[in-house]
Structures are given as structure tokens and as C-alpha cells.
Amino acid sequence: MQTSSVTKAAIGLAALLAVAAPGIAQAQKLVVARSVDADSLDPQKTSNTQSLQVTNLIYDTLLTMAKDGSVHPGVAQSWSVSADGKSYGFVIRDGLKCHDGTPFDAAAAKFSIDRALDAKTGNPNKSGFGPITGTAVSGSTLTLTLSEPFGPLPSFLTGIQSSLVCPSAVSGDSFKPIGTGPFKVVGWTRNDRISLAANEDYKNVNPMVANPGAPHVKALEIAVIPEAVARMAALRSGEVQMAEPSLEEAADLGKDPAFKVYEANLSGQQAFVAFTWKIKPLDNPDVRRAIAMALNRDAYAEIGFNGLVKIGECPQAPNLFASDQALCAGWGVKYDPDAAKALLAKAGYGPEHPLKVTLAVHKLPGWDQMHQIMQQDLAAIGVEAEIDTREVAAFFDHMKGENQRTDGKPVVWTMGFSGVDPDYLSLVWKRPGFVNMGVNAELDAMLDEQRRLSGDARAEKLHAIDKYLLENTYAVPLVSPGWGWLMASSAKVEGFQLGYMVSMLFNDVTVK
């Protein structure tokens, strides 16, 4: 696929479009500059966000999600759930075609789901499908059978981790990026650019997209420009129409009417403080609560992240199913240094006997300044926090051991997590939990139960989980949403959106 002839074809297509209709928005090429390339265009072989942002342009999903978190039709025009919650039926839309012209029907959808679940595929997103034990096709209906109810399934089937590949994409061990999505691949030069062309047969049903047909922009290039300075120079010169900015660059561009900045409001991301709660005195909920009261989250959002994020009140991100920021605010704590000092004094800590902790963090833009402010906030209530900074991968390996300790110096630490459904709380908090941060059998049972529920009953159980985590101060929500997934464009670009899990939606884009 990465042959010079294919690349030349992509360039030729762009040139033809520009010559055929100069100045017409629908015929222009859009170039988007990013810092890194995709590692794969097979959505069932990657969990890399930069890769999934591209695969989301090539492939469709069974279902889609609106801005309010409600689930809507996708490739499936309708769906139903059995009374016991162990069977889902999806009626596949008629007339769907893959990019190579082959039909996409219920049998094709079955092929893709089967491949996603096959252990031989090595799908890093397999767990999101839940306990599916079988697939079957009858006419235009695909039926998924589960060993037990799994309430998060519909939400997951809207996300970029559940993309459907066409059967013609797979031949033995070889793979070609063939889907039914709004764009098709016409060339890929690794670590340089991915060239895409509009799928002229595309019919949109995504509620976040207004355009009912093929994308207006007929040629889309995802270019790799690793250096931030070079990306911004390319954006300002007009060499590219969109680019990934740093936090500082986004703040500057946001003040310039010649540019637009896009925040990832539907990223599903939530940053929070956690504790090595097995180590004294962090085993005391009042001590954890005191630390939470010391944290000036407004300053973290406005100073650390240049006002490009908002305070998050829940253990999971806003805009997800059942995420209720008002309820969570009532269960969590408010910034109150005086009350924090009183709680610490009750536990035996004060100016003459400070509490000494390690503030374990990972090195990322925005986070670094937030952690410096956090260190000052803790010092103000009598907590001496020594910052221990590590690169991201090394940091999480380190925390696996720290969260198992029951003695030694206690650790206060920060992290972020994301998903398209609040079920990611299970991945984080159910024992052993993410980097061994699981809590106890009571919380495990609640997390398991919410998976077996749906609708209002599931929402109620998720609220109970939020309340438990916040009132016991196992989690202190900091900021949300997508602190690391900003985009910027020329003001001439209209209609671009960052969707769920920082998917990039170009269907409505036009260029003045």
C-alpha cells in the first residue's frame, strides 16, 4: 500500500481537484499537521489515540453518540435488547458499501466483530466488548449473545475502539484499510503523511454531523511535523490549514482572530488525585479529605492549563452516561484551606509536626505547572510534598509498586483516564485496579452490578459509586476534558469538531 505509485496518485488527485474547481470549498484539499504518525490503520490492532483518530475517518461503528451522551443508530439502523440483557439484535442498514465497492451487510458486521474478539487478532480493545459469547446472522440482523448482561456495550459500540472493518480488508495475514467511513485511504508514507479522499457514496447518520452525504472537503492529508515550532509556522503561513498546538500556543492563537482553537470537550478524560491509601496516615479518610480541601483546582485550570480545561467534579468525565456534575459537587470537597488545617490538626499534624508525603507525578505539558501550584497548596496547610517526576511509562510502572505498599512514606499522585462510557471506573477501581489502585470488595460489587444494569437503574448505581469514591476521598477530581488534545485551524476553516474520545470530525468542514 505504501508504494510510490499510490503516493503519486494521492498527489495527483489533490492537484486535479484544485485545478478543476479553484476557490470552491467543496473541492479544496485540507492539510492537518500532527506531531506523530499513526502506528496502524487497523482499528483492531491498536489502542494508540493518534491511530484511532485516523481509523475513525475510515471506518464506521454499529452505533453513534450525540453530544448529550445518548446512543443513536450507526451502521445499525435499529437495535434491541432481550429482557434478560443477554442478547442484542442489530438491524444493519441496507445499501452500505465498502470503499472497494463490496457490500457491507449483517454478515460483514459479524465478520468484523468476530475478528475483534478473536484472540489471534490481539485486539487491545477487546475487553470493551464485554462478555460476548457468540454472534449470529439472520437476514439483515446481527445478534450478539452475552454470558451476562453488560450495560456499557451500547456506548462502547459508538466509540473509535469499536470500528467495523470490511471483510475485503483482510486476506490471510495482510490487511488493507478498507471500511465504509467518510474517507478512504489513497496513500500512506510512514512518518510523513496519510492521504485520504472523500467517500462519495457516504450517507451520514451521526447526530453530531449535519452534512448528510460525502464530506465537503474532497482530499484530506494528515501530515507529520514533529517539531511544534515548525507546525505553528506551517499553520501561520497557510502551508497547513489545521495543526496540533501546545497549551501555550493554543492560548496565543485563541487571541488571534485569524485562527480558531478547538477544545476536546467530549474527550471522556478526567484528571484526578489518588492516594497510596494503605499507608498511614493516608488510610485515614479525614487526612485524605484535608489534602483534597487544600487543592485550588480553579488555579490549576486557569494557570496550569491556560483556561483551556474546566474543573471536573466526578471521578469520570462530563458528558458521559449518568455523569452528574451537580451531584458529585455535593459529595466531594470544596477548596477550604482553613478546614483542611483543622482536619490535619485533629490527626496530629501541624506546623511543628508537618505531614511529609511524596507528590508522584508524570511529566506532561500543563501538568508540570499544576503540580508546582499543588505543592504550594499543600505547604500552606502543613503538608511537605516532595515532587517526584517521571516519564509517563516509567511513572505508571513505578505506581504499581507504590500502591501495593502498606508502610513507608505515603504518596499523593495524579493521573488521568478516559473512555466513552463511565464503565472505565471498573478498569481504574476494581481490584487489582489500574496500577494496583483497587479499593475493596464493597466497591468491587458495586462496579460489577452497574455492568449488569441499564437505563435509570444503571445511572443510580453509577451515582452510588461516585458518592462512595468522593465521600471516602479515594479520588479527588481535578480538571476535564482533553488537556492534551487541542487542535487549531485557520479562521477560514469552518465545521470542524472534536468528538468523543478526541475523534476528529471533518464531514462538515468547508474552507472559505
TrEMBL record:
Leader sequence residues: 1-27
Keyword Transport attributed: yes
Keyword Transport: yes
Primary location recorded for the protein, binned into one broad class: periplasm
Localization in the cell: Periplasm
Stored CDD domains: PBP2_NikA_DppA_OppA_like
Sequence ranges assigned to domain Solute-binding protein family in this UniProt record: 71-424
Source domain of life: Bacteria
Pfam families in the record: SBP_bac_5
Keywords of this entry: Signal, Transport
Gene3D superfamilies in UniProt: Dipeptide-binding Protein, Domain 1, Dipeptide-binding Protein, Domain 3, Periplasmic binding protein-like II
Family: Belongs to the bacterial solute-binding protein 5 family.
Protein name stated in the entry: ABC-type transport system substrate-binding protein
Species: Labrys wisconsinensis
